[in-house]
Amino acid sequence: MLKRRTDLALEAAQLWQESAGEAGTLPGVESEESTREGYPVTTVRIRDEAGARALGKPVGTYVTLELDGLARREEDAFGRAARALAAELGALLGLAPGAPALVVGLGNRAITPDAIGPRVHDCTLVTRHLVGRMPEQFGHLRPVASVAAEVMGSTGLESQELVASVCQSIRPCCVIAVDALASRSLGRL
What we know:
It is a single chain. The chain has nine helices and six strands; from the N terminus they run αββαβααβαααβααβ. It is of the alpha/beta class. The longest helix is centred in the middle third of the chain and has 17 residues.
């Protein structure tokens, strides 16, 4: 039997439910559906080790924000998507205003399916150097630094080594890592 691979807790829960049938209830896992800025949001909370074992994911909160309006080129889709993502990240991270953040783009920019992390790095508005030097213009922004942690084959470094070194140097309050994902739904890719 072919085992389905997914990085999404939402899909792992769906796969578990499909294998368990209607009678099964997923132990240690809560799921909630909502909308934000017109986009569907599914939050899966894995509460304990039983839930972690069932889904093959660590205990934690997993949010899937489906930005399908972008693909359909709906009016104000990008603005709504940016606000929805900012709100979801804000709720997850709970950072104090002005707390510094590090965005890490993981992956291989030379291979299209793995290039999302480096592309996010390329498009991140970095403000760490501006907030302190030009507070009148940039003081309202969070200090953000960004790095593309390329693959070991092109750098000779494990991504974790690079990120740990940068974190030790700049001491961000959070790291937002962006990487490619495996999904069972082509629409999510």
